[in-house]
């Protein structure tokens, strides 16, 4: 096979692009052209790059996504090399001496390999500014990195790090740093999640004072409704059996804290109804002990759907959301089963869980079967003490973190503090300073500590929501109480139960309630007035002294959303729908050339809650059915589409494109008059989203159409990052009717990557042998 080397006059450097050519060797004519400065060999099948050292003028070399097992020795001769990419290979080690001559190297990407160390001579690369070591096997930061004084970006995510050296942050001048998905003790993951400034602050605090070891574990209870989660949680935290009546079951999430020996446990009891599951992503965090509660009395061994409902659903979503979890299964209602039945059902559940993990080629960090055991407290304590299960359970913290935490607890328990625990940030700082001598505590240090306490679940502070930047929720349980006012399985019943005096106080009538109920059931929407009435009624049932100011803070007004609405919209649980009258008869006359002032009209505010959507025909009718000429792509998900994912994609997409129609399982967007249909299919081994549009009539319309689809794919890609154990693949079906072939897209990595890929004008299907124009398959 011949490759023609083209020199592009518009480029200042001589470039050869052989990406995606399925090469097993570098073509000889490439090796003979010693003038090449940029060589792209990524996404091929290369196992060696012998003789590449003769390309003495090379400045950029891309070898990512090949099949290299050994680091190419010839690279040491490329003395002008400035950028080297070797990510996504299988390299286990880098020989000494490689970097001695690479003094011009500025960019080095080694992610997704099997490296555990770097040679000392890396320190000679004094110009190195970017280094990516993510997805490797490093247990400590190589010392050679600490000498790279020009380094500005360092990425070490997904390794096996437990400790970071202080010199990395106090001696170097890093601008970007990422270390997620490790098992850090010093600084803890919760500190590192705050970014570079917080890590630097952490080490400065350690320099100036004593350190303290913290042993605290977050325990998450999950399982179906009425499985017994709340009974177990309350019994463990209170040290005695605490039976829970059905009417007292958890609505939303219940939080409690207690001590077993030298460990502190923070219990989060999640309600089992699917309506509440849409809020779980707000609070579920990694590095927790997850207790999956299974009702053994309801479990049927010969019913696969029963296993999916009681066990499989929770395991699947846990695999996607927090893939490194430690899972402890606990059986309940054993008193209603025969002893041998308990044993048989326990074994059956364990076998089916292991089969699930094998099927998806996935594994939880550890799976502990406690279905038939009695001493749960003993199992929990033994589990958290095992280093292989919880390598970072003991965290090193500056002493100021603990003293401020105790001060915050003191403020929360004070009679002067509001019962709901919602406090202004500046007010909290002044209260802390009044109670204790924190001479070095300023607002920035308090923010660092609040970030840490937020991530371990003691308080809630959403600094990334602009309207809540200065609001701290000292009692997370109350915040969850607020969430469940609108996100609950019996919302319609709550509307029906609103007393007359509450309606009158909000200038509403019983007739309005009937309209609100109809809107909720038919369109999954609530008017702002209905939300105000619901929240006011719920607040009056709470043991609070004064709810007037709280009500205003939560609901806001027509000009500004309150705290509750801001939270629900931010986490894509609902979206605002603003309806305005088509014409304003009192509007000023429009005169060309004169200033035009728009008067704000009264808006009829409504909020769409996708979790309450029913299957309507409005979207299908407006779409008009699928056509054989439609252009569509499918995004396949493994192991499945996460619960609540499609609803959140719907909210984000519809917020971006204001012309839309929605129903359960599908939504229709319109941009510049062109419709786009997005549908969900979530069947076992066949989970995908379909993005479908009409075929353009004009050639120039293909570009805007693919831009439309890529925008939705971009929104989807960002959502997927919140499920680290979720994998997706984008494919375009063959255009021939009845042909099962699908063309797989290349990886989307960075802006323009899809547009920059090498494409021919036509593509021939390997199954039906028909030729298709590429504009019908890919952007």
UniProtKB/TrEMBL annotation:
<dbReference type="InterPro" id="IPR001611">
    <property type="entry name" value="Leu-rich_rpt"/>
</dbReference>
<keyword id="KW-0547">Nucleotide-binding</keyword>
<dbReference type="GO" id="GO:0009966">
    <property type="term" value="P:regulation of signal transduction"/>
</dbReference>
<dbReference type="InterPro" id="IPR020859">
    <property type="entry name" value="ROC"/>
</dbReference>
<dbReference type="GO" id="GO:0000166">
    <property type="term" value="F:nucleotide binding"/>
</dbReference>
<dbReference type="Pfam" id="PF13855">
    <property type="entry name" value="LRR_8"/>
</dbReference>
<dbReference type="InterPro" id="IPR032675">
    <property type="entry name" value="LRR_dom_sf"/>
</dbReference>
<dbReference type="Pfam" id="PF08477">
    <property type="entry name" value="Roc"/>
</dbReference>
<feature type="domain" description="Roc">
    <location>
        <begin position="210"/>
        <end position="387"/>
    </location>
</feature>
<dbReference type="InterPro" id="IPR003591">
    <property type="entry name" value="Leu-rich_rpt_typical-subtyp"/>
</dbReference>
<keyword id="KW-0677">Repeat</keyword>
<keyword id="KW-0433">Leucine-rich repeat</keyword>
<dbReference type="GO" id="GO:0005737">
    <property type="term" value="C:cytoplasm"/>
</dbReference>
<dbReference type="InterPro" id="IPR027417">
    <property type="entry name" value="P-loop_NTPase"/>
</dbReference>
<dbReference type="InterPro" id="IPR050216">
    <property type="entry name" value="LRR_domain-containing"/>
</dbReference>
<protein>
    <recommendedName>
        <fullName>Roc domain-containing protein</fullName>
    </recommendedName>
</protein>
